[in-house]
Design goal:
The structure is a homodimer. By secondary structure, chain A is an alpha/beta fold. Helices cover 30% and strands 28% of the residues of chain A. The two termini of chain A are 22 Å apart. Chain A has two domains: 152 residues, ornithine cyclodeaminase, domain 1 (2-Layer Sandwich), CATH 3.30.1780; 163 residues, Rossmann fold. In chain A, the strands form two sheets. In chain A, strands 1, 2, 3, 4, 5, 6, 7, 14, 15 and 17 form a ten-stranded mixed β-sheet that branches. In chain A, strands 10-9-8-11-12-16-13 form a seven-stranded parallel β-sheet. In chain A, β4 and β5 form a beta hairpin. In chain A, α3 packs parallel to α4. The longest helix of chain A is centred in the middle third of the chain and has 19 residues. Chains A and B meet through β2, β3, β4, β6 and β7 of A and β2, β3, β4, β6 and β7 of B.
Chain lengths: 366, 366
């Protein structure tokens, strides 16, 4: 039987402890060369709306220790909208019920069978939280106990849950421009983590004296003032734009997720192009200053997290070093690891909707 | 509702006429740049068996005229076996019921939803037959009426069905080393096509005086003697190895499916490598002369079928020219075209198993 799961079921099955463990194993296997990753590809098509495009995003990875390969598929309509003078790419919920399509398909590498189909919404945030915490495990000071957090969304919560598993946290201060959000986030996370999570009215107050400076916002512009970075700190974010070159320049040692930082992007009328955000190709009239990430560092010059986890690259060298991890693009093997953990838990607990395996098999050799 | 189909249902829904029409449209759109194709990728993993490997093959294409993107997924175990002194890669039917997994997932580019899941076995042969016949439409002489066919398997049947739609066929002669096979094939195809299909005991007899010389075998070594090639002929095959360089040298004008002739191959221990068959990497002890295609032409030097269909490249230039088409690697848009035709027919006829669209949607933006 293949198992079909909902986000609610995934949430009930997946602990952050498990996520962190399987993600660490996956990076180690990737570093050893046994796990294999196909970089993300993005195929764009025009739609019936002049300013909306369909993007078909896939990535995959094999994880031999769990005998699985996972394929992540996002099939959604996107639109670029100007926000604060910058173009921002936004998903448009045009599927039935104003929803999105994001799936992870898990297959057995022993017999090829489809094992599970699950939505990627919940697990994709868990894997980001776990990945950043995995970096913290190798890069933050061993006694790091104070977190300064920017952002109070779901991603911010995942960051804290994961960081609390790798360092002896004693206090978190959180800033978000919306007072109500940061206060309710602080209340909830205080209860979840069992340690004081304190709302701060100013970002500089949130990050003062922090051992770990974590940004988990949806901002496309830098949110960290380089002046906030302290000796011995570990800095992390959920996307590069939050940091800016000023912060990067303050870091002694920076790791990234992948040197191949752009997806394989395929566009109508242009074929294969090497860009992360193709707005300049698809909407040539759009503001040339918007769209692209602009001012991207030369990612090829940075070491990858898999080298750190596998021991090929050295982590923190001294108490005073400023270390940094940038989750610059997702990897298929992150999904393989987390989907395998979810599937194994679902089998143990009999969770999910059972679908006959035979529906997806054939006698014909393809 | 998403529709789940079996190979039997696909067969009942898909005519060769429709296949040919949609494949031609797809190549035209690809030539115009509106359709977009992601080249095939192959991810290999080791299995519990020392000489068997799992290969996860995906390719995809967007087809704006049908508002779809199709993703083909093959998840199977393969093994290299020595046949006649050469290593041959074979699928091993290790899924439940000794079966294989090969699927096409069709998505809407208007709202992102999953429209259909269908096996790729039947449609994949129809798309090969239709693609070669599409080439014949542009490259065979207008009065081509005699086919010399090598091979009597299912693929050979698809070739004839498709060729009969583009040229005024009057006679087919077929050779296969197994007398019983070629005779039953001849009987069946005579009935199907309504024209004489005559078994030949020698390949040279089958191909004598042929206007179209078609090979549809599973041989990895050349099956056509260069001396059989006649002026004015159109030569085609289902894989390059059937031709050999001697035949290629006799052809005045040769088109291929794609200049990017190798899949994006990812291997444990090697990462991304630019080979079609990675046996030399995975089984270093294997005969170095086997495995790889060996003596591959420089595909980058050949024009593609999309250029011919779109009019960017000239087809047959004279009655005397020898023309050739080599289906050197599959394209995602072939699957998009054929899967779209199948889906549209299934909707019209209410065929297949209905699966709630909501099972594959989520409120969370991925």
């Amino acid at each position: 039987m293949a198992i079909l799961l909902s986000n609610e079921e995934v949430q009930a099955l997946l602990t952050m402890e498990d996520t962190l463990r399987v993600v660490e194993d996956a990076y180690r296997e990737l570093g050893e060369g046994t796990a294999v990753n196909r970089p993300r590809s993005d195929l764009y098509s025009r739609t019936n709306l002049p300013d909306a495009f369909h993007v078909f995003k896939t990535m995959e990875g094999t994880l031999p220790s769990h005998h699985v390969v996972a394929l992540r598929i996002d099939s959604n309509v996107v639109r670029w909208r100007e926000v604060g003078g910058k173009l921002r790419k936004e998903g448009v919920p045009v599927a039935a019920g104003n929803r999105y399509l994001g799936l992870v398909l898990l297959f057995s590498t022993e017999n090829g069978e489809l094992l599970a189909i699950m939505p990627d919404g919940y697990l994709q945030r868990m894997r980001v939280g776990a990945t950043n915490a995995l970096a913290a495990k190798h890069l933050a000071r061993a006694d790091a106990s104070r977190v300064g957090l920017l952002g109070s969304g779901w991603q911010a919560g995942a960051q804290l849950m994961a960081l609390a598993l790798v360092r002896p946290l004693r206090e978190v201060r959180v800033y978000s421009p919306n007072a109500e959000h940061r206060e309710s986030f602080a209340r909830e996370m205080t209860a979840t983590l069992g340690l004081p999570v304190i709302p701060a009215a100013e970002p500089s107050v949130a990050v003062a004296d922090a051992d770990i400076l974590a940004s988990a916002t949806n901002s496309l512009a830098p949110v960290i003032d380089p002046g906030w970075v302290r000796r011995g700190q570990f800095v992390t974010c959920v996307k590069h734009a939050e940091l800016g070159t000023g912060v990067l320049a303050r870091c002694d040692k920076t790791f990234i997720n992948a040197r191949r930082a752009n997806p394989e992007t395929y566009l109508p009328g242009h074929g294969h192009v090497d860009v992360h955000d193709p707005v300049e190709y698809l909407m040539p009239g759009a503001s040339p200053s918007g769209g692209g990430r602009g001012g991207e560092p030369d990612w090829a010059a940075y070491p990858e997290l898999q080298e750190l986890v596998g021991g090929a690259a050295a982590g923190r060298g001294s108490e005073a070093e400023v270390t940094c991890f940038i989750n610059n693009i997702g990897l298929g093997i992150q999904f393989s690891a987390v989907a395998a953990a979810i599937y194994e838990a679902a089998v143990r607990k009999g969770a999910g909707r059972q679908i006959p395996t035979e529906w997806f098999l054939q006698s014909e050799h393809p």
